[in-house]
Amino acid sequence: MKKINIAILSIIAASIVQAKEINIGVVLPLTGATAAYGQSALDGIKIANSMKNTLSNGDKINLVVVDTKGDKIESANASTRLVSQNKVQALIGEMITANTLQVIRIGEEKKIPVVAPAATADKILNKKLYASRVCFMDSFQGSSLANYIKNKLQYNKAVIVTDQTTDYSLGLTRAFEKEFNKQGGKILDKFRITAGDKDFKAIISQIKNLNPDFIYLPVYYTEASLFARQAKAMGVNIPMGSADGVADETFINLAQDAAEGYIFTDSFDYNNPPTDLSKEFIQAYEKEKKNKEVPNFSAMGADAYFVIYEAMQKCVNNLNTECINDNIHSTLNFQGVSGVISIDKSGNATRSIVIKSIENQKQVYKDSILP
């Protein structure tokens, strides 16, 4: 009996000695204008890591987190440091398109796989070998809402307010306009704003005179909340909506009662967990956050981590960045937190989209649209 015990202990000791520490770099805006997105995604990534952090061979996965401050240069510098100093095997980040492009650029140069939780611009992965995402593309997001408001809500006339400084807004505008026209709707006019603008009263006045059925605002939560509040103050009660740039609860906090009835596209609904992993994650999140509802970007951050984890699990016998990258790009019907995700060779994800509205300061599920 003693000999058997000694043999077992020897095997355990050997496996402990052989186990390695593996780093995943997390590149997110934790301060700055888009900090709400980054903080939410980081919550999800950390909880996902707490749920699954050891590979089948005993290797331990650690997170190395860097704040980009929402800046393009910081995004590139942070990614470079994580690769050169921390020897990360994969990168998660960033949250907005312009900054994600910088993370991807470093990933391509260093041949390190990058998984973006929320960068939705259509062309961001074009001709990239080491980049992928777990979110849908803007063409699907913009066209889905256009189809929904035209055919489900019977809105026939719309105006679009576009942030001319972001690829995110411009891409959503093109997709929404194309699909709305295709479905027989009419775009009465398009208005351009710039990120950081604070006074939208002149535009709102023009829109009031046009009297559309719907106002599409493919912008981030700061500008969207200001626009909604100013419209309400001016007595303009035209239905309006956005994309996932307002999915974070920060939009509701900023817009307050002006958010009532606001429609938007999203990738996850806390009250409709689509998979077993989703249910497990929600339980872990509630325990960690004391019953706080799970935001969209926390689910997306978690899925970015879990996709990398599953790829690493398939590479335990020969863990290297090429193997990890190949397996990320071979993801098929992964039962993720936010839904079922497949990732093709180009790195793009095939997945469903959720339509929500804001009612009584809460996000309320309305519909799901399959690709």
| Arithmetic mean pLDDT | 94
Question: How are helices and strands ordered from N to C?
Answer: HEHEHEHEEHEHEHEHEHEHHHEEEEE
Secondary-structure content class: alpha/beta
> Which residues sit in consecutive blocks of at least 5 with pLDDT less than 50?
11-16
Number of helices: 12
Give me the Rg, rounded: 22 Å
Q: In which order are the strands of the major sheet placed?
A: 7-6-8-9-10-14-15
Helicity, as a percent range: 40-55%
Shape: elongated
DSSP summary, beta strand count:
15
The share of residues in extended strands comes to 15-25%
Largest sheet: 7 strands, mixed
C-alpha end-to-end distance: 60 Å
Domain Leucine-binding protein: 21-355
Keywords: Signal
Signal peptide: 1-19
Family: Belongs to the leucine-binding protein family.
Explain what this protein looks like in three dimensions.
The protein contains twelve helices and 15 strands. It has helices at residues 2-18, 35-51, 72-84, 97-110, 138-151, 167-182, 201-210, 221-233, 249-255, 276-289, 296-313, 321-328; strands at residues 21-28, 60-67, 90-93, 114-116, 131-133, 157-163, 186-193, 214-216, 240-242, 263-266, 334-335, 340-343, 349-350, 353-359, 362-369. Helix 8 links the parallel strand 8 (214-216) and strand 9. With 371 residues, it is an alpha/beta fold. Helix 2 (35-51) crosses helix 11 (296-313) and helix 8 (221-233) packs parallel to helix 9 (249-255). The protein has a seven-stranded mixed sheet with strand order 7-6-8-9-10-14-15, sandwiched between helices. The chain has a five-stranded parallel sheet with strand order 2-1-3-4-5, with helices on both faces. The model is unreliable at 11-16 (pLDDT under 50). 43% of the residues lie in helices and 20% in strands. The relative contact order is 0.14.
